[in-house]
Specification:
With 141 residues, this protein is mainly alpha-helical. It has a single domain, classed as Oxygen-evolving enhancer protein 3 (PsbQ), four-helix up-down bundle (Four Helix Bundle (Hemerythrin (Met), subunit A)). It is globular.
Length: 141
Amino acid sequence: MNSPHLAIRVCLLSLVAMAVVIPCVAIPIVRGNDPQTLSMFMRKKLDASSLILEGITTENATLVNDGADVLLDMSRAEVWNVLTDEDYREFNREFRSSVRKLKEAAAKDNFDNATLQWIDSVKACVECHKHVRSQRPVLKQ
């Protein structure tokens, strides 16, 4: 891979990482979750995302796989499921599907495809966080 291609990928992925970090910090605490528990959970999501970003930019499939496994495991945790509506469940399905495709691409050392799958995963995160924030008034009733 040539250096300009890698530089563009690193720039793109840095922007995507910021899109993950900002919504994660702003997500409201819902369903009576302990603020400290939710904060630690969100930090773990960010740590896993950092592994994926590092793995993609360094073309290290093990890092991508490790980060993706953490995110898939976390997506099944009770604290992850802050809403029960169909839109929220669809965001979760899209996210898990993108992360699985990310793992498959990395396993094949296809880091261009892994990059696209990671962008899809982050897009699902951002859209889901936006949906959760839009439900904040409903949750407070």
